[in-house]
Queue: 4 jobs
Job 1
Amino acid sequence: MKNIRLLLVEDDLSDQMIFKRFVKQEELPYDYTVVDSVANAILSLETNIFDIVLLDHNLRDGTGFDVLDILNDDIAVIFITGTGAEDIAVKAIKLGADDYLSKDIEANYLRLLPTIVESSIEAKNIKKELKGYQQELEHLVEERTKKLNTEIKEKIRAQKLLQAEKERIQV
């Protein structure tokens, strides 16, 4: 099984350390990069490929929404908010985040992380697969439509020739 390429966008040093310690302690299969700002997140996204992005809402040079705006649909996103900020989490999901986590003082929210990461990536992969099937189906429909149009034109031409031949015979 390949490691999950993860980007953590978190400006709080203690939260970064708690995350790193948790990943190490749980031996999670994450190749992670940690950045502390919107600008560094954008730079990292331009130069690296990630499977998932964990976005803290409050960052020193903006918000997680600023990063969410530039992400493509292929990357799973988990939005991280403070406790009691469910309205922000709902907004994030409406704008394209796949899930969210609410921080708590004891960092118990991290216990949910492996499950949420896995399910978010799996959901994103299923969406990609469905999109591929949809594109393939659209292509097949387009090809069949072209064939039918050609057949219709040939039938119309044959009917016109037949009609012309009938008229010639009658004359």
Job 2
Amino acid sequence: DGGSDLNWILNYVEIYNGLQLDAGTQTSPCEGGFNRLTPITTYGTTLYGWDSSLGLDSRDRGAPDNLRRDFVFGSPARTLRISLPNGKYYVYVIIGDISYSQGTMNIASEGTTVIQNLTTPKGVFKHIALTTIVSDGELDITFSRIGGASPYWLINCIIVISIP
């Protein structure tokens, strides 16, 4: 961009290969570049979705932004299934509610509990990062509650990125 040196340097390139899901209601704004995930998005009708919609609901608080304003929640444990090629993946999850504290919840990936006793105070959003290996063509992420201030687990968004 001007100057006496006509050369430029590129230090890093990341090629994104993954899936971004914005969890919320049927009508709340969906973050650009994200796919909508609602309580009625069931696996089998799309390449991603819940094992069952029974006991799931959603809310839209209207703030603070498109990713964190809304969420899917439930009381019974539910598994989010995503069709993916076998391989290693980064999984990022945002969890929180601007209006209420969230009770204790667990997250399991491919049948193994990877996050235990997660709580979020009112207005706090936790960013969870983990790695997982898919060996059966399907990533399974299970959300469950184990008590605390709220009888529900919730999810604002999930991003899955393949690791070369």
Job 3
Amino acid sequence: KKQLLVLAGAIFLVIVATAYGQIRLNEWNRPFYDALARRDLRQFMVQLGVFGIITFILLVLNVGQRWLSEMLKLKLRQGLVRDLVKEWLKPGHAARLAREGAIGVNPDQRMHEDARHLSELSGDLGVMLLQSSILLVTFVGVLWVLSSGFVFHYQGRSFSIPGYMVWAAILYAGLGSLLSFWVGGSLISKNAARYQRESELRYSLMQVNQNLAEIARHHDEEEAAKRIDRNLSAVLKAMRRLVWGHTDLTWVTAGYGWLSLVAPILVAAPAYFAGDLSFGGMMMAAGAFNQVQSALRWFVDNFSTIADWRATLIRVASFRRALIAEPIAKAAPAE
């Protein structure tokens, strides 16, 4: 637990430092693009040098964050697997679990593959969520200040909307998140069904491998092959359902991603054409908008992974609950 806390704290500090570097990189947009607009070669070269320094520091931070994230996943798996094995091998637990139906089938699958998958997904999603949250807090303030002076002109009237680009980013990401949940919500149950069918196929293969001599003695190869084929067909059916689920979700996530290429420019364009923003200022505002909406779109970008994580969490959690549950006492015989 202490190691996990140390790693989590180090990741937090690295992400904060990265967010500060990204603020400096966003501020760099204004002088760089203004130098381009003025055809100022000297200032252009100076800003290229500044870009090189900022990106090198960000690269070092990215490498450090990757190492810390991988170590976090390693420690998560270490703690989870040791906890499950300890509960499984307590006197009487393994034998009792084997008699409790589907939850007791393939305990090795739960402690090996499911625990590995859950640890990796938890580490990745947790770090990305923390990074998105810090970026959101950091760049909302920047974007609010940048868009506070935007004045809109319509039919001879002028008006302004405080934090205009912040509200636009929230609306854009909110619509994408709602649409992703609506289209991809069924992926959680589909992933859970797929993992269950996979474990059944693995169990059939293991059983056949362990009983090859007896199967050969009774000439049951054809029946064994049919049993494996039935389990394989169930896996493929579950996978087909997932294929269609991911395909439907891609319409949302990919479409959202392509629109994101022009969304910040479209939002900032009215102020630019009204003369309230320079070209560099518009690019700086667009960069801040991208950071805010990329933080807000964490749910959209990771919905299929979240569904996978949720399904794996349910499998591991239900297995652990079954391990630690107290056996139901048998009723005493009537005297």
Job 4
Amino acid sequence: EDDSGFDVYLLGPYKKTLERVLSSTAMTHLDALNLGLDLSSALSICRDSGYLYVDLKPSNIYRERHTNNGFKIGDIGVMRLDALKYTSLPERYRSAYTAPEIQDAFSAINTTVDIYALGLILYQVYNGGQLPAGDSDTIQPPDYADYEMAEIILKACDPDPAKRWADTIQMGQALVSYMQRNSVNDTPIIP
């Protein structure tokens, strides 16, 4: 009645997850930017509807080859924004993409955990399929990102939530600005 809500789609097994894409082919720079823009947009729509997506990881992202070659979130791992200060992250949503400040079962969720996960996914794309090595306080730039893209990614996955992008719209705008300043093409991201 109030125009908020979600369209729920049942995805068939023929949809390729980002996890499978990353394990079988090198993504291109254009694909990586489209991934970042599509996910920023999806996460923003989620927030506009009053929810925070808390289960972002490659196995929950699908490549849409039949329409526009875009990326879609294919899982319903959301929490109400107005209940975050009273909520901790359930164990089923914990993964390598979970922000460090909510690894503890008693930690309150903040509104940058989705940005952190998106940053780690882009990091993985620009780092030969590998997540950052070592402890989360000293994340090195991804191996195959130029300095500008590395700054965008490192800001997203900063261990300090106060230093991350304030919201997904800001991160999306940074990606658009990057695309406008740089020639982004279908060159594979490979060593």
